[in-house]
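User: Please run a holo structure prediction.
Assistant: Happy to. Please share the sequence and the ligand.
User: Here you go; the ligand is S-adenosyl-L-homocysteine.
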Amino acid sequence: MTGTLTIAGLGPGDEALVTPEVAAALAEATDIVGYAPYVARVASREGLVLHASDNRQELSRADEAMRLAAAGRRVVVVSSGDPGVFAMASAVFEALEASPQWQGLAIRVLPGVTAMLAVAARVGAPLGHDFCAINLSDNLKPWPLIEKRLRLAAEADFAIALYNPRSVSRPEGFSRALDVLKEAGCGDRITVFAHAVTTAEEHIEALALRDARPGMADMRTLVIVGNSTTRRVGPWIYAPRRAS
Ligand code: SAH
């Protein structure tokens, strides 16, 4: 097997946030595999084959990528942000576990700037103290587990980054998540809604959690709920480094 399989993160949107390492991998690739909107971010060129697929096709996409690499192609599987954060890297390893014949493949994972870090940098330093990240999609885990993690994260006083807050197919989940956090005593917490950061459609709003409305989030929004000490200084929002 002389092909390679590179799993790369394209960052949150801005070209300037694609790492040089990822740019080099894309420049050497023969095949790009991924969810269509992410594949569309890779400039097409002579000899480069683009394999765009639908959302939720992660496992078949991973299989296809391994098949191409095993046939000698230089394949790059692309995700937005970081490929290891609610993205393709885990899907590739799940597929690899199911197909031991591919375990000799040359695989690399190249990090990218994940959405919560791009958002945090825009508003100040809301992740400057202990924090966690929770995916609100219940495609692959039961909703009661999401609620449990929200309650425990609130109790532990983590700042909480919420990925995939809301989609057309599950409009009630985010509303319920806000209720769970309010019931857990987070009503006063500063909450950031950041839509499409680092793109032309970027829009960021911050307010107390109790004033947040479910409609403020969509699938291109990352939500950061501050911890109990998260505060404002001038236009900035930050978490102090100390906790008691
Ligand atoms: N691997 C990606 C996350 C994929 S899950 C990463 O590391 O960023 C998709 C979710 O990421 C979206 O629903 C949204 O919550 C968040 N997201 C991705 N890009 C974003 C952006 N530019 N602005 C705001 N949120 C974004």
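The radius of gyration is 19 Å.
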